[in-house]
Description:
Layout: H1 3-42, H2 49-62, E1 69-72, H3 73-84, E2 86-89, E3 92-96, E4 101-106, H4 111-114, E5 121-126, E6 129-130, H5 136-143, E7 150-157, E8 173-179, E9 181-184, E10 188-189, E11 192-193, E12 199-200, E13 209-214, H6 221-233, E14 240-244, H7 253-263, E15 268-275, E16 281-287, E17 299-303, H8 310-320, E18 325-328, E19 336-342, E20 348-358, H9 388-402, H10 422-425, H11 427-458
Parallel strand pairs: 13-14, 14-17, 17-18
Antiparallel strand pairs: 1-20, 2-9, 3-4, 4-5, 5-6, 5-7, 7-8, 10-13, 11-12, 15-16, 15-20, 19-20
Helix pairs in contact: 7-8
Amino acid sequence: xxxxxxxxxxxxxxxxxxxxLARDQGRQARQIGEVLGAIERSYLEPVxxxxxxxxxxxxxMAKLDEHSALVAGAAxxxxxxxxxxxxxxxxxxxxxxxxxxxxxxxxxxxxxxxAGVRAxxxxxxxxxxxxxxxxxxxxxxxLRGDVGSxxxxxLRRASSGSGIDGAGPADDSRMVTLxxxxxxxxxxxxxQRLPDGTWDWFVEGEPGIACVRIISCGDRTLAELDAALxxxxxxxALQGLVLDLRGNPxxxxxxxxxVCDRFLDDGVIVSTRRRGSGGAVVVEPRRAxxxxxxxxVPIAVLIDGLTASAAEIVAxxxxxxxxxxxxxxxxxxxxxxxxxIPLSDGRRLLKLTTAEYVRPDETSVQRRGGEPGWGVAPDxxxxxxxxxxxxxxxxxxxxxxxxxxxxxxxxxxxxxxAGDLPRGMDPALALAIDAIVSxxxxxxxxxxxxxxxxxxxxxxxxxxxxxxxxG
Length: 471
């Protein structure tokens, strides 16, 4: 057959295949359209067509995995704010108390902070609406809004015994008008907040032990982490680093890869497994680049049951490469990757599972019913889980340390007691510190042994590699 005819036949076959696929997809779309049209024309009661369409899409998504979803409205705004690490608002972290909605902490240099709103203030009203019976989620939705718009917030002090951690004097009520602006959230935190709003990166009462808490993996996490590591690396007598990933729900895959790359100079960080053309499985390894931060410095990683997704990538990678000791309790077990796909209506996002990630040892962390070995497990002998009263005491203690000292109702000028120091309040952190101190001591012992051997060889007390003795 002439070459020209072969090419023409291939072209006709390709066009036919594309047309068949388009026809098949069109058939499915037509059927959905027919159902919606019949309901709109003939159903007994009038039905909102947009609600029907949304229900159809949600029904489709319900047939997929638990992490795939149609995201719209407040959920979309929350997702975008978490990943972008910014939103239009007044800069208040809120929590529920016995009396209602209480300010956990104002974000440093945000509109509320500059207006004098402080931890322990009760939110009595928002734009004239009484907050009694209002959820924290609803209050946050009202406080957020377009940059440049205003919101009137009624404040009062909590009654004695009911504010943050049961403290706060009964006092004045006042009204403040706040102008919304772009508020940027932090994802990298230290051991405790300093009076100027920055972080102390070193664990109180533990000389030379740094602590970096990564609470999410967003757009600005890497820049924040790099700034923290630069400060830590410049400190004298650094013994080790605690990387606290407890409660981190994950975030951006690329951020997790870059965090790992900070501490490795070679090897696979993670591999992603996805469906390629024709249904073939495509595995894409992501490797570390040369050069690492804090080379030779012992690292301990803290995890718990809320450490998930991108945070699990970091823990698994550092564990498999032997770069860190893993301390805490088994992680959540979310080993899938979701792509965020904007829909054409401009209002909704499709969060669709498009890949699974595989740790360097070629196992998955994905939790599957009945299968053992999911998640990231702490190293043997490094298991500790905060439960019951210990967990609640730790949460309250941690909230106090995250506040600006002068805004905390518990702020005192006197030094804390031994029981209020990190080692006394955080058993998992204490175990991580012990692991670092032990690793640092072992490393120093190896260096001293190597130095002694070198001195002996130089003095002729030990055979050199080429001296011909020893058979």
